[in-house]
Amino acid sequence: MVLKADARATDVTVMSDPVTGGAEHHFGGTYVRALVWHARETLGPDWVRRSLQALGESRPEEVLVDDATWTSFDQYKSMLQAASRALGGRNALRAVGRRLYDVEDYELNPSVQAFGSPDALFADAATAITAVCPIARWTSSEVGEREWVVEQRLDAGFEPFPELCAVQAGVLEISTVIFGYPVAEVVEEQCASFGAPACVFRVRWDAADETVRRTRFLEERVRALEGRLEQFECTVADLVFGHDLQTVLSRTFVSATRAVRAPICVLSLTGAPEGVETLYASGVSTSEAGRIANWLPSPPSPDSEGALIVEVASTRSRYGWLAAIRPAGGFMAQEMPRLQAYASLVAAALDSATALIEARHQEAEARRQEVDARRQGDTARALLELSMSLAEVSTVQDMAAKLVRAVPAVMGCDFAAVLLPEQGGAKAIIVATHGYTPGVDRFLRSRSLPILERRSGQTEVELYADTAPGSLSEEMMALAGASARMIIPIVVDGEWAGAIDASVSGDPGRLCGGHDATDRLRGLAAQAATAIRNARLLERVRHEAMHDPLTGLPNRALILDRAAQMLARARRQRGTPAALFIDLDGFKEINDTFGHAAGDELLLAVAARIREVARPGDTVGRLGGDEFVVLVDGPSQDSGVELIAQRILAVLCEPFRIAERQAGVLSVTASIGVAVGNRPSPGELLRDADVALYQAKAAGKNRYLMFEAHMQATVHDRLLLHMDLQEALRADRFTLLWQPICRLSTGEVTGVEAALRWVHPSRGELQSSELITLLEECGLILDVGRWLLQQACRQGADWHRRGLPVDVAVKVSGRQLQSDRLVHDIQHALDAAALDAASLVVEITESDLMTYVKSGADSLRAIRGLGVRVAIDDFGTGYSTLSVLREFPVDILKIDRAFGTGMDASRESTALVRAVMQLANSLGVGTSVEGVGSGIQYVASEPQYCDRGHGVLITGPLPAAEIEGFLAARQGC
Predict the structure, then answer these.
(1) Alpha helix (H) ranges present in 821-955?
(2) What one-character-per-residue DSSP string does 650-689 give?
(3) Distance between CA atoms of 773 and 775, rounded to whole angstroms?
(4) Residue pLDDT, tens place only, 11-52
(5) How far apart are CA 524 and CA 530, in angstroms?
(6) Is 788 left (phi over 0), alpha (psi -120 to 50) or beta?
(7) Contact status, residue 708 vs residue 677, Cβ threshold 8 Å
(8) SS3 of 508, please?
């Protein structure tokens, strides 16, 4: 902390005793609330009451579960152990942890959601846990896709206990749900309670449909932000309706402690009105609070380690400091703006109190001068009514309308106007007036005024007498018959946000006679600034809830709303609405190859191009990922929906210049599904467009297709097939066949290649290539690929133990090659089966390898590092065939069956195969021929260069039971 030696007043209000009961700051109220609420639901309120009494807990239950309450390590440990005994064991406490984000915590939940994703949350897990459990130290590391390892250590002096580990496991399980994902799988691999150096949790979670996940995420975020806004509005209401300043300051300070959730909070006021406490503290004693107040920094240092410190100040005055202290550090980025917001409320309360004190002095003077009494009373009432009405405004224009009606009553002026920035911010326009004739009002609203640059926070009042020169000001005064005019800027966060204009006719002294009018005008400007700030906050929350954060386009919620409006208009006007569902082709590969930063930049450029070709009245939105939607409201002959689709395809085919890519240029295509005509609901319109998109993808991509009724049946059939695949994996219905690989010179079997098979109940047997495509489509390739490795290694080890020492070859898809878990899965399968790594051959097709160039090379090196051999399957069909021998670590080239089956019919095929064999042999790389089908091919394979092959001449794929006899018969040939 940056500290300042400066004597301060010692009058103090300590908020810690009634809130925390003097408890040590080890566990936040959110932890205790989750435990108490779960116990009430499962064990009953009587058990909770008796248990708290038995543990010596003197704080009432409503205080104990408050966000601002803290509980000591020993007390929370006793609570958990008591609950564990009653619930039947510590594993039942995981449900307590899962309630952590289930409670209505409108400060913690938005802070966690602000991380944006579970990966970002776990990457900064230390910061997230410190906010509610300062004694816990979390470190984390990403070990795979949607998989993290989190280590927990407690500070010195705090002995780990297993019940806490169970709660923390529950917290990790539910941490993914707040982002729209399913509950995570959490395994505690090590526990410090049983002697390990740290508690180690492995966290995995499943993928989720991005559209559904994003919708759930945004719905939860809007709910939390609306709750937080409601709490903030309650604090603002306290500011308006508080019985006295002391009450308002106390309530605002308590709200600030809840918003930031720091163990220690201190509000030090040096400029408070007489009779008001100057020091408020939570979590520390009176003497400690005074010591902190004496050493608060000046100027504020938001980056001070372990503390957030903001100045309590307004355009009117500087009042002191508001500090939140977390000795363990780890503040989240969202907590500083919250603390600043509450500091602004405190300043507003002090502004209002100062203004009220001044008003009271004026009223006392008015009592001595009966002439001014009525005016002072009207002013006070107008200010109160204005404060109450401004607390309810939802837009800046609404604020201007309420403000302009209060200016004459407060200022005693004849005319009033409110100016706001024009769109773009270069000029200002008059948006509300009072006292002017309708003709003058129309004239004033039609004019624009230049905005003068002002220093941050400047609130000078400009005064014009009847002889003052100057364009519009002089013209306004002449039109209204005004003799004097006063203008004050409305400044929000140091920026010009508007102005208040007050004019009088007759005696100019009504405005020019002293500081009274100036101060009242400043007070109005301060209230207007607070109202504008609140209205902007509400508008920002609403905008974020309805727009995509990356592109700023309407999100799914807003798209559905606009689609509903479009369909309603079409029914009334008998129009023809349409929806275009756009998806980029191969966007995932761009993300994987060039990184997410390049992917985001490409999405921004794509959004801009789609907006360029869309019509002005159409809606362009983003559903998530690389999916965009265009709602076409009534296509016309010169801009029909087909023409719009063609324009989008054409504009997206142009290369994109991407700064994140070294070469600077990316090319991408898109597929578009189009649904035309009215539908009962917007969801059905988008569904039909999505179905057409699916068919466009299946038809070869880079095209658009119009929805037709039969497409729905095709998609439904594909979905059923995907569901059957998932059930087949759960029920273990996949099987393996084995294709022998023989030494061509002797016929001896040297290895077998595993071939995946699945017998569908109605479709019959599906071949390996078709299965791989389906598994990749429905996201099961990693799970089934892992199963295939395990089964193949287990079978190979079994044959070795029975005297059949053959190699086992397993095909790996491109998705597996890209996964960070492939090397781990191979090692695990070898270890589990006790199979020698040298007996395993991992096969990857040449086309997959060239698709994932960088990640593929890295993965193959890691696989060979295990001692496993690598074979390139379908060699000769890729677009960079010979470069494979130079770029990738390869042990075996499997020459594609297209060459093998054509060797006896084509001299060219034979010559090409011979050349490849000779080249591979010179580089020390083995070769194998696929599709050996005749005696001629058998001989032409030239065993001096290629001593292995497989095909129908040898035998087709066989079940394990039949292959064993085949192996035994060929052994020793």
Answers:
(1) 822-833, 846-851, 853-865, 883-887, 897-900, 907-922, 935-940
(2) HHHHS-EE-TTSTT-EE--EEEEEEEES--SSHHHHHHHH
(3) 6
(4) 444 443 333 334 477 888 888 888 888 888 898 989 988 888
(5) 10
(6) alpha
(7) no
(8) coil
- Residue among 104, 103, 90, 172 at smallest CA distance from 138: 172
Token pair listed for 484? 């004097």
**How many residues belong to the chain?**
973
Placement of tokens 């009105």 in the chain: 273
Token readout for 784 is 């089934």
Alpha-carbon Rg for the chain, nearest whole angstrom, is: 37
User: Residue 857 has what pLDDT?
Assistant: 77
pTM value is 0.42
Q: Which residue has the tokens 């309590």?
A: 312
Beta-sheet strands, E only, within 438-517: 448-450, 462-465, 484-492, 495-504
Q: Longest C-alpha distance within the chain, in Å?
A: 125
Residue 98, CB-side half-sphere exposure with 13 Å CA sphere:
14
Going by their DSSP bridges, the two strands 415-421 and 495-504 should be labelled as antiparallel
- Which residue type does 859 have? S
**φ, ψ for residue 493, nearest 5 deg:** 55, 40
- Tell me the C-alpha distance between 514 and 505, whole Å: 17
For residue 501, how far is the Cα from the chain centroid? 44
Given CA atoms 408, 413, 414, 418 in this order, what sign does their dihedral have? negative
**pLDDT above 90 covers what percent of the chain?**
15
Model confidence band, residue 311 (pLDDT cutoffs 50, 70, 90): confident
**Distance (Å, rounded) from C-alpha 345 to C-alpha 353?**
12
3-state class of 336 per DSSP?
helix
Return the sign of the alpha-carbon dihedral for residues 266, 280, 350, 333. Answer: positive
Give ∠ CA 787-790-796 in degrees, rounded to 5: 135
C-beta separation of 278 from 250 below 8 A: no
Tokens 């030494």 correspond to 743
727 burial level (CB within 10 Å; 0-12, 13-18, 19+): exposed
Q: How far is CA 457 from CA 118, 129, 239, 521, in A?
A: 40, 37, 22, 16
Considering only 288-292, 295-299, 345-349, 747-751, which range has the smallest mean pLDDT? Answer: 295-299
Contacts of 799 (CB under 8 A, 6+ apart): 805, 806, 964, 967
* DSSP per-residue letters across 69-137: -EE-HHHHHHHHHHHHHHHTSGGGGHHHHHTTTTS--TTHHHHHHTT-SHHHHHHTHHHHHHTT-TTEE
pLDDT: is 75 or 481 the higher one? 75
C-beta atoms surrounding 165 within 10 Å: 23
Give the whole-angstrom CA distance, residue 525 versus residue 518.
11
Place of tokens 């773009």: 424
Q: How far apart are CA 318 and CA 813, in angstroms?
A: 66
List C-alpha distances in Å: 305 to 154, 262, 289.
Answer: 20, 13, 18
CA 620 to chain centroid, in Å, comes to 22
